[in-house]
Amino acid sequence: MKIIAGGVAKTEVAEVLRPLLRPGDTVVVGTDMDAAVQLRSGEADYYLGTCHTGAGASLGVLVGLLGSDKTHTFGRSLPSVETIQAAVDEGNLAFGFSLDQAQEVVPALWAALDERRQRADS
Predict the structure, then answer these.
(1) How far, in Å, CA of 31 to CA of 37, rounded?
(2) What is the CATH number of the domain that holds 84?
(3) Does the global pTM surpass 0.70?
(4) How many structural domains are present in the chain?
(5) What is the pLDDT along the chain (122 residues), one digit of tens a residue?
(6) Is the Cβ–Cβ distance between 112 and 86 less than 8 Å?
(7) Exposed/middle/buried for 103, CB within 10 Å: 0-12, 13-18, 19+?
(8) Running DSSP on this structure, what letter comes out for residue 22?
(9) Can you give the residue range of the structural domain that contains 56?
């Protein structure tokens, strides 16, 4: 699985995510434009974007290029595990959240993405 971390706290998101990954998975720091191109072409699987509100700059380009049915913002609220799981199960590829919530959101979002992959593989 390849994940692109973008937005204001992209480096922090990548640092939180790296120790959670399975062998063969990667996280790269990139831009929203990089992510849009790579998600559309299948070169990347997911995008985790951060901004101050979790709703604007974290996903603006991706909503425009992928469509709102492939993007989900958690905004300023700290999402529950159930909310994260539902967003993943809906088939979203890009997720936006507030930069000050990376420590909480990234591990929970990774768990949901990894679980979805395991279900798909079985």
Answers:
(1) 10
(2) 3.40.1400.10
(3) yes
(4) 1
(5) 999 999 999 999 999 999 999 999 999 999 999 899 999 999 999 999 998 877 666 788 888 889 999 999 998 888 999 999 999 999 999 999 998 999 999 999 999 999 999 998 88
(6) no
(7) exposed
(8) P
(9) 2-121
